[in-house]
Design goal:
heterodimer, A: 76 residues, mainly alpha, 3 helices, B: 355 residues, mainly beta, four-stranded antiparallel β-sheet, 28 strands, globular
Chain lengths: 76, 355
């Protein structure tokens, strides 16, 4: 390999390494919140929205389920 | 000659310096993230009432594909589903009646990605053709192929696609290890996202109002959070021991779930910048292909290679129930936008609706 080619390769490696360090510096600067605080928020979100989650509660009346098989007897 | 040699040495030196800094930064990051794990999620949620009275069951069976179902997406009207298959077909279903409203034959088999446009008037799909093609859905004309429009082109297969908030922009992920944002009208590339060291398998847009973030997961076992405006990776999440097959944002936008070939699903929190919970069991040894949350974020549905759907309690970390869903691996699943139903797609060539 010529000296020039080797230089280019070094330059390329240097560039890559610089990019990696830049990415890591960026990540290191990310402000972080304690897991307990985050979990608290996730629990709150669940609590606030559970009443509208029909996959947990089912429908108030089974007939409200649009996927319930139609047919059978209808009460007039 | 001598001065040139010196320069080379100088370059080597600075590479070493940079390497040392990278190592130090990595170590510091790990330590900082470890410090934040001050509580176990399952323990923190021990006082929360458990999920009981689980009543979901199979309501519809969608038959019509002649090959493995690879992808599905709900329309925003909560009635329609688009699915794509290994047989080269994309079908649009009316979920209540199970009628097939549209059928499109793609130029190649393995249509790995499909998505419904937010307006409900178009669908996008692609796969081994390395492209993402948009088909307008009209009711008067049965052959929608005549109006198709190729928007995105990658250098390898298309693994996933999704519209951003309107029909005008399309976000794609590919086996060429990049994601890309496209202008639908002009077909031009707006922004590309480089960073994954392996095939990108899945992408999901943040539901939060600012709406500039999306998450991607891939065969490099990492999930990355990106800022769409700048093409910048803002967070990297590691921890899985094998490919990440699917990523899905938590309904609040603060976290996201991953499905991996390592037989686990994880919940990663954006603000903690680390894993918040992991959903696994010794008896579960098959890979997970797809995940989605119930509308409250309390349940996490995972579609697995052992033909089942495991339903996890996101807070307590326990499995609520197993749905013996299909006769082959569950490849894709999604909760309808109003949260009333779950759709699963499988390598048994069919889709099912659970409610």
């Amino acid at each position: 390999m010529s000296l020039e080619a080797r230089m280019n390769k070094f330059q390329e490696g240097l560039q890559q390494q610089r990019k990696l360090v830049e990415q890591l510096r960026l990540e290191a600067a990310v402000p972080r919140v304690r897991v307990s605080e985050c979990i608290e928020d996730i629990m709150k979100y669940c609590e606030q929205h559970t009443s509208e989650d029909v996959l947990i509660n089912g429908f108030l009346r089974p007939g409200d389920n649009p996927y319930k098989e139609k047919g059978g007897c209808n009460i007039l | 000659m001598a001065t040139e040699a010196l320069k080379v040495d100088g370059t080597q030196d600075s590479i070493e310096v940079l390497q040392r800094e990278a190592e130090e930064l990595k170590k510091r990051l790990e330590e900082e993230k470890a410090k934040l794990k001050d509580v176990d999620m399952c323990k923190a949620a021990s006082k929360v009432d458990p999920v009981t009275n689980f009543t979901m069951k199979q309501r519809r069976h969608l038959k019509g594909h002649l090959g493995k179902v690879l992808c599905m997406d709900w329309s925003t009207d909560k009635r329609r589903i688009v699915s794509s298959s290994q047989d080269g077909k994309m079908l649009v279903w009316e979920a209540f009646t199970t009628n097939k409203e549209h059928a499109v034959t793609m130029p190649t088999t393995w249509v790995m990605a499909c998505a419904y446009g937010p307006s409900g008037s178009c669908v996008a799909c692609g796969g081994l053709d390395n492209k993402c093609t948009i088909y307008p859905l009209s009711t008067d004309d049965t052959d929608i192929s005549s109006k198709k429009k190729a928007v995105a082109t990658h250098t390898s297969y298309l693994s996933c696609c999704t519209f951003t908030c309107s029909d005008n922009q399309l976000l794609t992920g590919s086996g060429d290890s990049t994601c890309a944002l496209w202008d639908v009208e002009s077909g031009q590339l707006i922004q590309s996202f480089h960073g994954h060291a392996g095939d990108v398998m899945s992408i999901d847009l943040s539901p939060s109002e600012t709406g500039n973030l999306f998450v991607s997961g891939g065969c490099d076992k990492t999930a990355m959070v990106w800022d769409m405006r700048f093409g910048e990776c803002v967070q990297v999440f590691e921890g899985h021991e094998s490919d990440i097959n699917n990523v899905r944002f938590y309904p609040s936008g603060d976290a996201f779930a991953t499905a991996s070939d390592d037989a686990t699903c994880c919940l990663f929190d954006l603000r903690a910048d680390r894993e918040a919970n992991c959903y696994k069991k010794e008896s579960i040894i098959f890979g997970c292909n797809s995940v989605d949350f119930s509308i409250s974020g309390r349940l996490l549905f995972g579609g697995y290679n052992d033909h089942t759907v495991n339903v996890w309690d996101v807070l307590k970390g326990n499995r609520v129930t197993i749905l013996y869903a299909h006769e082959n691996r569950v490849s894709c699943l999604g909760v309808s936008p109003d949260g009333t139903a779950l759709c699963t797609g499988s390598w048994d060539n069919t889709l099912k609706i659970w409610a």
